Amino acid sequence: MGAQVRPTARQGLRSDDARAAAAGAAAGFVWIGALRVWMAMLVGPESTVTWRTGPFVLLPGTLIGAAHGVAAGRRAHGDRVPPAARWSLVLFAAPLLLPGAVRKLVTTGIGSGALVPPAVMAASGAALRPAFADAHPRARRVGAVVGALAVVGGTIGGAATKSLGRPARGALVGLLGTGLMVLAGAAAPLAYDRPRTRVTPR
Questions:
Q1: Quick one: pLDDT at residue 144?
Q2: Which of 108, 118, 187, 191 is the most exposed place for a label (fewest CB within 10 A)?
Q3: Which positions, given as ranges, span the membrane (predicted)?
Q4: How far is residue 7's CA from residue 149's CA, in Å, rounded to a whole number?
């Protein structure tokens, strides 16, 4: 029979964490940058880039990536994942700290896009955690198929949306948007501990 081995707690940060944080930060920066490009494609000429884009959009995404990088490194070593990795998703709400942002969200719905990534990652993390934690290859394959179908559906839906312009442009917008959300959802389970099993002698 097998017995679960709980991940061990690690005190402080090690050089492994620094490297993992750097890799995660780079991935997070690229991801949030692509998301910003997608938002600009979605909104059109009305989308603007100001000095606030860095601290309120790019920086939060980079920090979230760093937190998930550390979490991935801890999981790989069988150590406990810091809770900060899960709580880092609240940084997505940073744009709502801008003056008047909450009022616009309540009255017009502008800014609601900032709530989509954390919602997707929170839901995906809870849904996919058992599959990744218990090393169920079939469940992972099902998740991969669902993600692929979502990307295909988003691409087709974007091509059929006239407000996005020509079908080719709409398809690109749909592909980029759904692809980024699927990628975020796939990364979400990294923020959770992965119990390992060992075989005990009979």
A1: 83
A2: 108
A3: 20-41, 53-72, 84-102, 114-132, 144-165, 171-192
A4: 34
